[in-house]
Amino acid sequence: MNKKGLSILMRIRMRPNSAAKLSLSPLTNELNQTQMNSQVNQSASSNTEREFELVRASMNSAISMNKTEVLDAVLNDFSAGYFNLDHENRRRLLLVLAKEYDLNRTQVRELIKQYLGLEPPSVSGENAQSSGLEEEGLLSAFYRTERNLRHALNPVYEVLFERLNTHPGGLKFLSSLRADILSILAEENIASLRALDSYLKEKLSTWLSPAALELHQITWDDPASLLEKIVAYEAVHPISNLLDLKRRLGVGRRCFGYLHPAISGEPLIFIEVALLKNVAQTIQEVLWDDPPILECEATCALFYSISSTQPGLSGINLGKFLIKRVITLVKRDMPHITTFATLSPIPGFMQWLLSKLASQSNLAEAEDMSQSSANGSGSTFWENILEPEEEKAIMDSSAGIAAGKSGMEVMLNLLTSTNYEWTNSAELLLVLKPPLMRLCARFLLQEKKRGKALDSVANFHLQNGAMMERINWMADRSEKGLRQSGGIMVNYVYRLENIEEYAQSYFSKGHIHASADLRRYVKPLEEHEERTD
Amino acid sequence: MNKKGLSILMRIRMRPNSAAKLSLSPLTNELNQTQMNSQVNQSASSNTEREFELVRASMNSAISMNKTEVLDAVLNDFSAGYFNLDHENRRRLLLVLAKEYDLNRTQVRELIKQYLGLEPPSVSGENAQSSGLEEEGLLSAFYRTERNLRHALNPVYEVLFERLNTHPGGLKFLSSLRADILSILAEENIASLRALDSYLKEKLSTWLSPAALELHQITWDDPASLLEKIVAYEAVHPISNLLDLKRRLGVGRRCFGYLHPAISGEPLIFIEVALLKNVAQTIQEVLWDDPPILECEATCALFYSISSTQPGLSGINLGKFLIKRVITLVKRDMPHITTFATLSPIPGFMQWLLSKLASQSNLAEAEDMSQSSANGSGSTFWENILEPEEEKAIMDSSAGIAAGKSGMEVMLNLLTSTNYEWTNSAELLLVLKPPLMRLCARFLLQEKKRGKALDSVANFHLQNGAMMERINWMADRSEKGLRQSGGIMVNYVYRLENIEEYAQSYFSKGHIHASADLRRYVKPLEEHEERTD
Predict the structure, then answer these.
(1) A270: which strand partners?
(2) I need a surface site. Which of A94, A304, A474, A506 has the fewest CB within 10 A?
């Protein structure tokens, strides 16, 4: 990298480690720092009504003008104008787009009437040769009306999306537009805007088909403008300084990204890989252990971070083909690598556990107060999620930091104590490890939502055909690691020979493949009554 | 280029110059030689019924299986099986696809019924804030039904197309599939197959959006596997040998292509450019004049060939953005280039002229025979397209090669004489030049179809914003040049400052911008009564 590149790179404002707003998992697409900054800048100065009307007018031109090259200027005007709007005016404009540029419903009803009046083709497919010219003519008319109806059911704003997609920088702009739409929808549910979002998402999915994505190995020789994106977007284990970045691209490490020709110099998603002797148990040994082993001695490629860079592409699974293609690539270059595994966060664990502990403690309290009531039996909703020996150990050792009437209440108080104080006490670590590891295994293996793993990262890897191999105690002691999963991380393993079978059985039956070690944490009985709420 | 590359390149079977089957214009996408060869190979051995049924079964699996990674194998089976089918069985299979995998029309009618029963959203856009939660709920249901109806109107075979598009090599396969469909439709019109084609074309247009295309300068340093494609697909001025190819990539020449990441090592369309002092008048000086001038002395970039490589992408305008982007690129690298022009074929001229001459000669003959009939006035359809002095000159000099009762009949016979004998006679060249140049200008400037230039290449450049600058006598003396346009070629000029205005007025009013020199060929009177049949 030349001097200019370096100097640019060193001016990057690194993301703070205390990342309260950072993405919680490789695939949640929260607004990232860069995005937020730019929004703040824009909303600082609010727009005049005239500014809004100008952008609205350029949007109208972009939709209604003839499709010639004249459009370029109009589309530039529109996107520049849009970026200049503050949050409230963007919201207004997007509502105008969603409501005033959706379907022509009079035309739709007219076409439906026509369509219902026509005779559909018979399904007796094979004897087409015998049908006369006249019949082919009638059929043509039918297919034409059907196509017209299909087209009429496309909202008018499709034109804007299509035109932006063929416009330089337009795809990136559409992705920003959708990020705004998602952030509005997160605050309030507006049916027309949701319809707009769902349509735009469909379009983006087609345009960002894996066929149009290029897999690129990112190295220290890449332009600084690309590398600064890696620093800015790394969502799992933030990159703290230049040395850290260089290490992640150096010996014993790999970084691959998907690039789209229309969004140049910026991967849509990237994955970081460490070449190791064994599947790592803690993120510390991946990020900080020095020096790396000789690459020729590595037998394991460990995926330790996947970050997507475009909040506006949320819900579009770009990662699916990425992992498979990276495995193929690594295997081709380094046949001695036989294990492909991840060291992944469990972003949903603590949230699930704390709400479980809180609601059960409340139930217990309510139970307690109504003990003398008519119905003597306990609430059917109440469940002590602690084993008797865990309960006992917790009650015995809690003194000093947290108190409570039951093991669950004490545990809740311990886990929510300031600065994760429990992690500084060897005794508490010893006491809390068994229930936390067991409950984490239960969370990963048994807690589901619509038949799929409740944890988003688990769902991602399982649908890609991975199996759950191992959970690791105190594997990520960063603030984020402790907050999300009590410091526990999980290894998913991709076995090339099983990827397709596992993906298929997870997809069709929600079956989660896990190692015997992991399954041992959960009671065989419980294993069969999988939760699907 | 290394030795291996060269040896591969030298094994290429060059396309014959006597190219009866070659593309007639840069943008017609006839089946090319390569394609035809592979088809011949396949049809050599006809398939058993069992082979057909196997491919049909794999097609069915590819459409109806769950969307998981298992698909890869199925899609590979299907495409390999398809390529192995002979022409008749491909036709059968495509008909099965078109008829048995189109819409579920029962579902469509069901959804239409539901849809018509719902209240559409009011258009009074602005007061969305005031609408209650309940109303948003009703609206959501409406939008959902509308979306479901839109989805239901997509044929079932959409799934196959979508899956192939995300499959390695699938986009290329879809392009081959469409080439087959087009060749079947050229023989017989089958409504369901035409509907399939129109749907596939729509899909391919989205996937091949210019946003996903990369502009690549093709040089002698490119892999032989790419360069052989240039040799194989060059449709305008066939590349005769290795030296010819090297010259077209060498000093004073440029070659640019659009690459799609999913169709690797093969441009979808490419354009050849010569750097010259002046706008060339004949193709001979571009292809054969040696040595080229110093690049720093060039003031003109001449586009002398545009070829598209995929017959299956016929009708998808890939060239539009190409010319504009190439101009921008050349201008950036070489600011001393101020003129951007083409030297283009006029593929439709002779066809138009000969049919005009033939029909007018017939009319004249019929007129002759019925001279004594009741109605004394001539047929209103009859028109002597020759000027009196042209008629006289032709009648005076025709002796020896062709005879006829009128100038038009003699001209028809001269132009269709074996081996273009008229081009070997200095006298005939002199006599024919005035009417041919004048009628060529009339053809280019005035003959239209649905308000657009009748000539396909003219229509292409005009819609890109070019103007017609000059027609050149004996500019292409190749067999193809004489057959298509009597050896005449035309220069289109792109003036950066006018491109958008010209494209716009051609698009909206069919207005053709032409130089005064060119307009002088046609009578001012005729200029205003533009033909639109």
Answers:
(1) A257, A307
(2) A474
What is the Cα–Cα distance from A508 to A518, expressed in whole angstroms? Answer: 22
Return the structure tokens found at A337. Answer: 């690598």
Q: A with B: how many residue pairs have Cβ under 8 Å apart?
A: 167
Quote the CA–CA distance of B521 and B435 in Å, as a whole number: 10
DSSP state of B125: G
Query: Is this complex scored with an ipTM above 0.95?
Result: no
A83 touches chain B (CB under 8 A): no
Question: What is the C-alpha to C-alpha distance for residues B356 and B384, in angstroms, rounded to an integer?
Answer: 10
Cα B157 from chain centroid? 27
d(CA B381, CA B360) in angstroms, rounded, equals 8
Integer-rounded Cα Rg, in Å, for chain A is: 28
Confidence (pTM) = 0.74
- SS3 (DSSP) at B377: coil
Cβ–Cβ < 8 Å for B468, B515: yes
Rounded to whole angstroms, the Cα distance separating A350 from A360 reads 15
In three-state secondary structure terms, B402 is: coil
Number of other residues whose CB lies within 10 A of the CB of residue A34 = 16
Cβ(A101)–Cβ(A78) below 8 Å: no
A100 exposure class (CB count in 10 Å sphere: 0-12, 13-18, 19+)? middle
C-alpha distance across the termini of chain B, in Å: 52
Report how far apart, in Å, the C-alpha atoms of B225 and of each of B13, B216, B231, B265, B267 are: 13, 15, 10, 7, 11
Residues pairing with B260 in the sheet? B263
Mind listing the pLDDT tens digit for each residue in A362-395?
Answer: 776 666 655 544 444 455 667 788 999 999 999 8
Q: Which is the catalytic residue, given B167, B237, B461, B513?
A: B461
- Residues of chain A neighbouring B262 (CB-CB closer than 8 A): 211-212
Would you say B393 and B433 are in contact if contact means Cβ atoms under 8 Å apart? no
Burial of B84 (0-12, 13-18, 19+ CB in 10 A): middle
Spatial contact of B485 and B440, defined as CB atoms under 8 Å apart: yes
Residue among B161, B93, B531 at smallest CA distance from B312 = B161
pLDDT of residue B371: 53
Given a cut of 70, whether residue B76 has pLDDT beyond it is: yes
pLDDT-based confidence at residue A398 (cuts at 50, 70, 90): low
> How far lies A345's CA from each of A269, A442, B407, in Å?
17, 16, 88
What is the per-residue pLDDT across B199-222, written as a single tens digit (0 to 9) for each? 999 999 888 877 778 899 999 999
User: Which residues 458-477 of chain A have a CB within 8 Å of chain B?
Assistant: 465
Per-residue pLDDT at B58: 92
What distance in Å separates the CA atoms of residue B91 and residue B42, rounded to the nearest whole number?
13
Q: State yes or no: is B336 an active-site residue.
A: no
* Chain A residue whose CA is closest to B129: A190
Q: Which pair of tokens denotes residue B131? A: 């609408």
Start-end of H helices in A272-387: 283-287, 319-333, 349-369
pLDDT tens digits, B131-166: 566 778 888 999 999 999 999 999 999 999 999 988
**Amino acid B527: pLDDT:** 44
Residue showing tokens 């619509």: A450
Taking only the tens place, the pLDDT of each residue in A18-41 is 333 323 333 333 333 344 444 444
Residue A129 burial by CB count (10 A; 0-12/13-18/19+): exposed, middle or buried?
Answer: exposed
Predicted local confidence at residue A376, as pLDDT: 43
> Which among B408, B523, B424, B515 is positioned nearest to B471, based on CA atoms?
B515
**Is A461 among the residues known to form the active site?**
yes
- Cβ contact, residue pair A207, B210, below 8 Å: no
Which range has highest mean pLDDT (A117-121, A201-205, B165-169)?
A201-205
For the record, the structure tokens of A80 come out as 């520049």
Least confident among A225-229, A443-447, B28-32, B303-307? B28-32
Tokens of B443: 């053809």
